[in-house]
Structures are given as structure tokens and as C-alpha cells.
Amino acid sequence: xxIILKLFFIISILFFVATAYSIPPFKAAAIxxxxxxxxxxxxxxxxxxxxxxxAKQGAKLIVLPEMATSGYIYANREQIMPYLxxxxxxTTAILAPIAKKxxxxxxxxxxxxDKNSRLAYNSAALIGPQGYxxxxxxxxxxxxxxxxxxxxxxxxxxxxxxxxxxxLVICYDDSYLQSLxxxxxxxxxxxxxxxxxDRLPKTEMGWHYxxxxxxxxxxxxxxxxxxxxxxxxxxxxxxxxxxxxxHYVGGASIWDPDGxxxxxxxxxxxxxxxxxxxxxxxxxxxxxxxxxKQVLLTRRRPELYSxxxxxxxxxxxxxxxxxxxxQALVVQYxxxxxxxxxxxxxxxxxxxxxxxxxxxxxxxxxxSLLGTQDPQSLRxxxxxxxxxxxxxxVDIAQQYHVYLVYGFPEKTSSxxxxxxxxxxxxxxxxxxxxxxxxxxxxxxxxxAGDVLPVVDTSLxxxxxxxxxxxxxxxITNIYAMKRADIIIIPTAWTGxxxxxxxxxxxxxxxxxxxxxxxxxxxxxxxxxxxTLVANYIGGKNQYKGGSGLYALDPVEGHYIPEVTxxxxxxxxxxxxxxxxxxxxxxAYLIIGQRVELNPPLTLSDxxxxxxxxxxxxxxxxxxxx
Length: 625
Prior knowledge:
- Helix content is 22%, strand content 25%.
- The chain is built from 14 helices and 29 strands.
- The radius of gyration is 25 Å and the shape is elongated.
């Protein structure tokens, strides 16, 4: 039976690929629209005008902002009540003729009231040439939403259209990896991202509760292989009842499945608001099938993900209660392939150059003394976990009295593993991680490990990924749920996946450094765990460097990420655990997640239940859980 289901899964992927190739390229539009606050009826014809304008320019998918019918910063349910709409309702009815006339699809944000329960939701509707298709109710509510709206109850639907499979995600949803991972695993080709991308001035009450901007999602598309069409707003909105002012930062953007920014509107600034723009980009359905999506669909290991189903908030016995100052060296060097002695000498020289500085943690690259990814070499040079490489690393750990993390090919009685070892300052092994998510090259020489460990140390709780495991987003979510303070990634990255981070400096408190890599950025942000990366630079394989510290909040930049492309033992320091006065930290991440929606992520893709969920993409029922 399992074989039949696995064959069915493969056939489904092939059908998905064939379908994608049959869809011709089309134009998408992301619209910046500033609704009139304390209004509804006057906003509707304006929405029709901007949607029709985009349709006349040839756009076939049109994405409007969050709460485009009403404005956003309402004080309570009583204040917003006159401006709520049912779905379907007036908004969908007035946009449907545009969708029909121009044969387009329109996603629009609506402050919704359910006609039966009278509950209010921050929602989005999708309208197509045949009329209303479906809706999504925001799951990841922020502090402004909770003044009047309840959490969504429709899961994360994906709507099957002639343009491909479209998911709807609303603004603060993007703070939680599940909001993006669930639609992607369910087969979404495009995420229509409806946002009122805002940043409160630091002089305003509540500024630290919501500094999310459209920059928050900038690295996601290439991680999971989906297009993202991100609408936004510009300028200022003031609530006369409370005096609150919110600044909308603009920056509407469209990203392709490789993570490339195809189009972006200009940022809007508090003291210099910009006019709203409509941006366009060509969507190529042939890119729906891509390497990131294939990794997502084939390399996940749901049997390791059961912790995703546990709601451990507001109190979590695993969470660290104390912040620790960490002074680390990440060693980046140009290796001589398969020459342990030469490479060990180089590492020692780089560490000696930093001897005058204090440090308590050293991180080395993947296969730290070998500088190779060649399967035959790794098998030939594999050794016992406590062999010569271990002894050399113990000497370093004891010499500098530091924790030391390194990678090596391990030979055991049961087979070979791609491994990471952590040694404490006394030279004792305190963690041995076997790479658990193997790529096709790994499978030629190694077995997969079955544990995603988090180890307690005097520096905090530390977790590990090895090399291209960063391509599997679930691991990031697991380490957040397991309350890792630090994630360490020994790697040998040549640029074969991911890309350099690009976020418009106008959307950030501090410009993001050059040579940062999108997936390392995403790991740190979505785990809310400081992420240390040690890569090679140059050498026979032309490694790309980028080693350093990836921080928790790239938008606010409480710790500005630090990276290097030089050969050096790169010194970085930080204090673990995000502060409670930040708009996001790991505790808030855990509290805000909807773990009851996570079961599909923990089901094997061979089970009938998973296939039922994945095929019935627009349904919200729980199927078998």
C-alpha cells in the first residue's frame, strides 16, 4: 500500500509539472492603495478604478492591500463595525464585473463580519472571471488586529485557478513560518501577499509591538520556490479617536521562485510620504517547477517534526530564562582539498591571530579539515567520531578553553554519516549530530541521522544544521519550537542555492550588509535564534564565504548582521534571547503560532490523509486529525 501511495505522490508531481508547462506567461500587478479611514462605501469605487487600471495594462492577477476597503488602525470593534463587509458581499460584488470583463483574478483585503456568528475577521477574498472564488481569514494577528478581529478559522487554503495555485497571506502572517510553509507544501505556485506594511514611529505608543514591513518576507520566495505578489500602502493614517498614527512604508514588491526581486515600488518615509504605485512583473509558469520546490516536496522528513503540534506557551520548560553574552569566532578559510594537515595548520594560524581577543566559541566549516564534498573522498577519509580529527579539535578547545563545533565524515559500524561534533572547553564531546536531511550527493555515501538535537550549554541552548539542510524550512521551525537560542551551521556553500540578500535600505532601520545569504537570513529570523555560519572562501570549488552572524530582526537591526568574505577567524559577539520590548522574539513567535494547523506538516506524504489535504486545497476541514 505504501508503494502505491508513493507512486501516486510521484504521479501527482509529474501532473503538476505538466500543468505548469501548459499555462502561458502572464502579467501580475501589486497595487499600493490608500483607503480613506473611517469609510467603506467611498473606498469601493476607488478600488474598482485601480483594479481596472491594472487590468487595462494587461495584468491577469491583481493584488490589493490588506483591509483595502476600510483602513487599518481601528481602536476597537465598535469603531470598525460600520465598515465591515461580508464575504461574499459588497466588495466582491463590485469587483466581480471587472474580473469578468477583463478575465482577471483579483485578491483584495476586507475587514469581514461573518453573517451568522457576527464574528469579525481580517480577511482576503479572491475573485475570478466567474465571480467569487474563496476567502482566507488571517491567522497571525498582531496587536492592532486583536482589538477587533478573531483568529482565522479556515486554515491556509490554496485556490486552483487557470493561472496556477494561488494562496492568500495577510501581512503579519509572515512572522510565522507556518503561514508560508503550509501553503507551499499544499502546492501553492503563487502567494498573494496582502499587507498594510507599517512601522510606527518610536515616539508613538505601542511602536515596539509592530514594526513588521514588507521587507519581512523578502527572502521567502526563493526558500520555498513560489512567486510572491506583495501589495502595500504608503503615507500616514491617523485615528482621530485615539490620536494614533501609523506610517505605511510602501515598497510593494514581486519576487520570483528563485528569490529575485522582479519589481518594487519606492519606499515611503514618515517625513516624506510617497504616492502609491502599481507595479507589474511577468509570471512564467514554467518556473513553478523549480529546485527549491522540489527540495521542499521531496526532502522533508515529517516523522521528525512531531514537536510542531505541541503548544508550549506562555510557559515553556525548555526555554532559556537567562541571556548569555557570546563571543565567537567563525573560521572562514580557503582549503586545500583533502589535505588535513595543511588545513589544520591554516585553522590554527587564523585562531592564533585572534589570541589576544576574548572568545568562548569557535565554529568551523563543513568537513572542516577536508574542504571537499566529493562522495568518494568523504568515504575514503571518514573516521571514527573520536579519531584523529577529534583529538586535534580537543587540543584546540582545551588550548583556548572554548566550545568548538566542527564537521567531519564519520565512519561507524552501521555506516557513514555527515556529522557535526561539539566539544566543550574541557575537551569533552557534548553533542554529535548526524545530518538528517540528505541531498542526492549525500545519499551516495552517507546515511541520514534521525535526531534534531538541541544541547544545553553555558552559552545557551544550541542547535545544528549541516550545509544545505538550510533548504528545508521545517528544520528552522523545529528549532524554534525546541527553543534553541543559537543555531550553528557549518557549511561548504558555493552559491548553488540561495542568493545574496537584497532588501531596499529604505525599508530597514540599518542597511543590510553585502554578501549575506537569503536562507541563513531566513533561518535566524524564523527561528528567532542567532545563527552562526562558518563557510569556506575560494579554493578549488570557489566557495562563496558569507560566514558570520545572522540576527533575529533584520528590519529593526537590534544586532546588525555581520558577515565576511575574507579568510579569517571572524570575531562576532551578541547577547542571546530577543528582548521583550522588541516587536518579535522567540517567545512571541511560539505564543503567536497556530499549532493546531500544523498536523499536515507532520504527516508523511505517503499517507492518504496528507494526500486528501493536499488535493482538497481550498477546504478548511481537519480531514483526519
